Structures are given as C-alpha cells and as structure tokens.
Amino acid sequence: MSFLFYFFVEGFHLKITMLPSILLLFGLATTALSDGCPPDESIFPCTCIQNDFDVDATVTCLDEKLSLGNLKRILEVFDHQDSLAVELSGLNLGRVPEDFFQGVNVKRLELWQCPLESLGERPLTGLEDSLETLIISASVMDEDVNFKFPVGHLNNLKLLQLSDNSIPTLGDDWFKDGPKSLEHLILSDNNIGRLGHRAFAGIESLRILFLAGNRFGHFRRSMLPNPASKLVELELDNNGLTSLPENMFSNMPALELISLQTNGLNRITKEIFETVWEQLESLDMRGNSLECDSHLEWMLHAKSMVRLQGTCQTPPEREGVELKDVITGKAKL
C-alpha cells in the first residue's frame, strides 16, 4: 500500500514538475503561430512573408479579380498578429468602408494601382493606434470624384505618401487635426490645382514635405505650421510658381533643404531667403529663368555654406553661368 502511495505521489510530483515545460512548449508554439504566416490555402490568392522588416508578417495581394469580401476574409486570418503590413496592387477597390480594416493591427498599408473612389468619412477606422506608414499610389484617378482624406484620427501615422493620383483639390480639412505624429508627407504628382489656405498648418511634427509635380501655382506661408519648428526639407518643384511671399520661410529654425526646380521663379531676394540663409545646406533653383543682377549682392556678404544649384538666364552676358559661380565671385555681378 505504501509503495503504491509512494508511486502515486512521485507520479503526481512528476506531473507537476513537467507542467511548466509543457506550458513553455505550448507558449512557444502559440508564439510561432502568432508571429508566422498562416497556411497558403487560407489566404489564397494572396501571399505572406513572415517577420518582414518591422512587422510580424506582410500579406501581398495582386489578383485584380479579388473582391472586397474575399480580401476582408483573408485579412481576418491575421487578426492575431501584433503588427501586419498589407500590400495591395492592381485590385479594383472602389468604395472601401471606413471600418474595413477593423480588427487587424495593420502597421503599414500600401495601395498601388488600385482604383479607389473612397475610404469613407473617417478613413481606416480601427487603425488609429497601429498604422504608421500609408502609401496610396496611382489609385485615385477619377477627377470627378471629390476625394477627401482626413487623417487626424490616425494617432501614430508617421509617413503618408500619396503620389501619381488625381486629386484636384486638397482642402484644409485633410490635416486640420494633424495627426501630431506625422513627420513625412509626400504628395508628389497628384495634379493638385488648389490648396487650402491652411492645408498643412495642423501638422506640428512635419519634418519633410514633398509637393513636386502639381499645379497649384502659388503658395502661402499660412499653409504650413507656424512655427514650423521641425521642418527640415521642403520640395515644391514643378508647380508653376512665379513668386513666393516675403514671409515664406519665417519661423522655420530647422529648415536645411529647399528645392524649387522647374518653376517660373527668376529672383532670389533677400527679403524672402535671408531668415534661413545661414542655416541652409542646399537651395535648388534649376529649371528657373534666373536673373543674376545686382539684386543678388546681398548673398556676397551673407555668411552661408549653402550649396546653390541653378543657371543664370539674364542679363545676356551671364546667360548660362552657374549661380554658384556668381556668388563665389568666379563670375562678377
């Protein structure tokens, strides 16, 4: 009797001591499942890559016949992931409900050549705290669609890129409420013809703003944060600009890089540039018909290590002369 009891006690002890190991193995298996990709057949025709850069998994969908319903089903397979990247290319999305991604922790979302009409009144509801990177390229193509995209509720969005779309108007409502987290904003080649007077004023943490290849024709200081204390780089290439306001670069203590290529600008006046001249690293004026006359004399006396790019157009005796050679004294004013 005592032998049997001893065996039972020892057996019980054995079970107790093994339990942590069993739980550990179970935990590792669960972690592997949560951090990995599901079976291929469960997400067909999409594919998955495990532990891709800064996310647990990246799901990629390229099938133009994939419906929103099936896409939703596939995304729900990943509802256990802590962080997910979603890359869609060639899908006909149309009107996507604002809560379409609800329940999935999408950290990075990319839409490439996916015809899109709307993402709802409050786009990407459910991704407020997870989404950090959003790219929409060559997807908003119908000028008759009044595409609006307020993103102030996306609390962790750091990079937003909308490029090669057709967005005739970008009003004050897009970035009225930030988000405060947004640092990189790329809005190149969107055919933007009109900007709201305070289009980007609500983006307090803005560091890089690219607006090349649009057609808005003029730019106001009020469109940017004031102060724009974190703005480092501003690109306004190819926008039909013929002038800049005198206060264009006021209250921009961190600004280092300005690109104004291929506009209709012809003068680099002291009133506009003096406030940032000593801190600038680069000013790119290529593709403008620059006047290299006495109005540039202020640069000869200003302390600056700025890298100047551009070519003189007038007066005739300086046509073709590099702007930097004028400022360094290699070509006299």
UniProtKB/TrEMBL annotation:
Q: Which domain of life is it from?
A: Eukaryota
> In this entry, which stretches build a coiled coil?
none
Keyword hit for Ribosomal protein: no
Q: Where is the signal peptide?
A: 1-34
| Key words of the record | Leucine-rich repeat, Repeat, Signal
Q: Which InterPro entries match?
A: Leu-rich_rpt, Leu-rich_rpt_typical-subtyp, LRR_dom_sf
One Pfam assignment: LRR_8
State the protein's name. Answer: Uncharacterized protein
Species name: Oedothorax gibbosus
